[in-house]
Write a structure and sequence with these properties.
mainly beta; 6 strands; two-stranded antiparallel sheet; 90 residues; 1 helix
Length: 90
């Protein structure tokens, strides 16, 4: 089964709250671990598609990839072609 397009949410990014590693209300509910890589897709991917690429770095140019942070260079830059968000870590 090939990837299927999904309807992305229409979100006003000024007011959007999107957190990775904690709950939105942030009442002490934080991830107890480490994240090595984060990939966000605008398509539903099959198990086989995930398995094929899960242990390989991406280029950031893959169809449907809308966010990609691999942390390999010590930064938190979004490596996708449409990168608009970068975070700093103190």
């Amino acid at each position: 089964m090939a990837s299927q397009k999904i309807n992305p949410l229409k979100v006003d990014v000024v007011d959007a709250i999107f957190r990775i590693g904690c709950e939105v209300d942030a009442k002490g509910q934080f991830w107890n671990g480490a994240l090595d890589e984060i990939r966000i897709w605008s398509v539903a991917r099959t198990e086989d598609e995930i398995r094929v690429s899960m242990n390989s770095p991406l280029t950031g140019q893959e169809d449907g990839l809308v966010g990609y942070w691999n942390f390999d260079d010590g930064t938190t830059k979004d490596l996708t072609a449409i990168a608009t968000v970068s975070f700093s870590y103190p």
